[in-house]
Amino acid sequence: MPFTKYCAVPGCGRKQSLHKLPLGSNRNAWLNFIFNEVPADVGKTLTICSLHFTEDCFVNKTQVETGFADRLRLKYDAVPSILDPTEMVQHTYSQKSPTMKDVACQTELNLTSQLAFPTLAPKFRSEGTQTEVSCKSVGAPSTPIKGFRPAKTSCLELEEEKRVSFEDFDSQDTTYEPAESSQLPCTSIERDTKYIVFEKCLLQLFETCPVCTRCCDVRPRRQGSFVAIDQLCPHCQYFRKWQSQPVVGSTPLGNLQLSAAIHFTGASFFKLQKVFNAMHVKMITHTTFRKHASMYLEPAIIYTWKKEQEEVLRQLSRGDKVIAGGDMRADSPGHSAKYGAYTLMDLESNIILDIQLVQRNEVAGSDHMEKEGLKRGLEHLEAHGVKLECIVTDRHPQINNFLREINIPQFYDVRHLEKGLSKKLEKIGKDKDCEVVKKWQHSIKNHVYWTAATSKTPVERVAKWKSLVNHIQDIHVHDDPSFPRCDHEIRQSTDRSKWFQPGTKALCTVEKILTNQRMMKDMEKLSPHLQTSSLESFHRVILRFAHRNVVYPYLGMLCRLYLAGMHFNENSNRPRAKTSTKKEIYSMRPLKSQATHCYVINLMTFLFEKVIRDPLPYMKEIHKLNIPETLSAQYGRGHRKPCVLGDKGGGLNPT
Question: In whole angstroms, what is the distance from residue 363 CA to residue 614 CA?
């Protein structure tokens, strides 16, 4: 049977979002649905359109409706069940000609006036009338459009034009998907599809009066990406006002959605502005963007994050104790950091529990921000009834003393200890007399992880770590009864140059580093089970929303941290990537499936359904925040001192 480009269901014949006949166990179910009696010579290239499936048969139904995906994807066990799609409201397709609408208006043509429909139809115009339309644009350059109209086409040509669809015009565009673009009617404003329209093409729709077919005066008015056009006919006084976007109060919803899309996805306003300017696409100003953020977007983010975290902490409070991981991320390296964001994570579920933002002027300095962030985070968990079994952190001295005072068990992350040790070994290896250290540097790093993973008690960890000094000298029997000999197979080595020699500078220096008092205490507290690697991954996610080279206000930085937390919590435990045959992909590193952005969809829906109607209740969450003063507020403005003319030193001398 030749390959069909249409739906194989009898009486359907559509070619919108087709799905090929599967090869699995549900192949017979598909064939029984298409044919009452399955013929013997059924081909493998039969297709069924998406209208014969229910909504729960698709994996990415919401993403396609909101524009985050292009094609519908069926579940592995999906089976068609809708025989007549026209009976389903959500799958209604009209085979007749579309309803007549005014091209330049968002609403249907009003036929309840005294003018009948034939009166509004196009007429022949006088060839002696040659006027120009005054197109005065606010912020958008335009040229006068000639009022001369081409001759009227015949009735046959008009009928053919009515039958032309968008599919015929866009057949050469490989990105055009008729099924995805017109499958479902838009149920909300934020899900409505948008297009880029050229100004000259838009003004052509208002060039001629629909009543007397003469040229009209067209006056465009622009506000960001919003444009309103007033059309006035000087001959018959016909007037029409058209708007490119719905307006709530004085806020065009397209401008608001553009601000929301920039903010919710962590994009940069100024980078997007460069793209729009390069295309000469009109865009909102940064002042409007900040107005939308402070009035609508930031309250929506703060409120949504608080509600989601309350639910997470409520569930954890009912269960067992939590093994938490904590670490701080500064907005800039070094001691000049303005903000410190301390994050607490449930290491067993990889879920962010709390994010605390500390500004430098709230504490004595940048060195004290990490302790303050941990203190606030633990108080927040305690207020919600979450109990900690232990906490895994780095080796910050202030954190160690604080956790010892409040009697919370603490473990060290292995990576942080190994990182500090590797820096010291790398520095020693640069010495000419210590070149053997370079050969052992990688093995010593591996021994740190092996010690933490295979030891059950602090005494055993210390014994295994001290055995490294003997091992690098080719001595594999030790005096400590907790670890009397190495676990590996003992081999006789003939090349003595690769081992550390007793009494050499290299051995003395390395032994001093490996067995000093602080290293022994740190080995006792190495985390034997969970590490903070997922927390480090979250810090890399923050860079997508809050770049280090951009200065944000306190509330703007806090919202970006919350957005990063929403993104991480949604995608931290996503499954492994699979092939088209539903088999997992195995490699050296685990490949996960593609990240989702459902939190953006939820924020958009919440913004347009709740916040925009009445933002005051959601701004109460912002008023509860203790927002500190800016760093410059603690310094008074300097007074300029008058100078004496003719000062040879070139300085400013008081009079």
Answer: 36
User: Which own/partner contact pairs does 270-279 have at CB distance under 8 Å and 24+ positions apart?
Assistant: 279/196
Residue 2 has pLDDT above 70, yes or no: no
For 647, the token pair is: 């000062």
Locate 603 and state its tokens.
């924020």
| Cα dihedral 509, 513, 516, 519 in deg (nearest 10) | -170
Query: Buried b / exposed e across 476-512, counting CB within 10 Å, b at 16+?
Result: eebeeeebeebeeeeeeeeeeeebbeeeeebbebbbe
340 CB-near residues (< 8 Å, 6+ apart): 328, 329, 330, 331, 357, 358, 360, 366, 369, 370, 372, 373
Nearest to 264 by CA among 598, 623, 534: 598
DSSP state of 472: T
Among all chains, which residue has been given the structure tokens 């390296």?
Answer: 333
**How far, in Å, are 70, 307, 566, 606 from residue 601 at the CA level?**
16, 16, 12, 9
Question: Which of the two residues, 85 and 199, has the higher pLDDT score?
Answer: 199
pLDDT at res. 522: 92
Q: How many whole angstroms separate alpha carbon 147 and alpha carbon 568?
A: 57
Q: Are 27 and 56 in contact (CB under 8 A)?
A: no
CA distance 616 to 602: 20
From CA 644, how far away is CA 655, in angstroms rounded? 7
| Pairing mode of beta strands 410-412, 388-393 | parallel
User: Going by C-beta distance under 8 Å and a sequence separation of 6 or more, which residues neighbour residue 338?
Assistant: 331, 332, 359, 360, 551, 631
- Token digits for 494? 């003939």
Helices 397-405 and 369-383, packing angle to 10 deg: 30
Answer for the pair 134, 226: CB distance below 8 angstroms, yes or no.
no
Q: Are strands 247-248 and 251-252 parallel, antiparallel or unpaired?
A: antiparallel
Q: Which residue in 93, 230, 213 sits closest to 165, CA to CA?
A: 93
Residue 338 and residue 331 in contact, taking contact as beta carbons nearer than 8 Å? yes
The model's pLDDT over 209-260, given as tens digits with 9 standing for 90+, comes to 999 999 999 999 999 999 999 999 999 999 999 999 999 888 999 999 999 9
Using DSSP, state whether 249 is helix, strand or coil.
coil
Tell the burial category of 36 from Cβ atoms under 10 Å away from its Cβ (0-12, 13-18, 19+).
Answer: exposed
Query: What's the sign of the alpha-carbon dihedral 175, 62, 77, 48?
Result: negative
Phi, psi of 399 (to 5 degrees): -65, -40
| Domain coordinates in residue numbering, the chain | 18-91, 117-244, 414-524
Tell me the pLDDT band of 448, cut-offs 50, 70 and 90.
Answer: very high
β-bridge mates for residue 133, sequence order: 145
**What is the C-alpha end-to-end distance of the chain, expressed in Å?**
102
State both tokens at 281. Answer: 């696409």
d(CA 242, CA 271): 31
Q: Output 8 or 577, whichever has higher pLDDT.
A: 8
C-alpha distances (whole Å) from 561 to each of 355, 447, 554 are 8, 36, 11
- The phi and psi torsions of 97 (rounded to 5 degrees) equal -70, 145
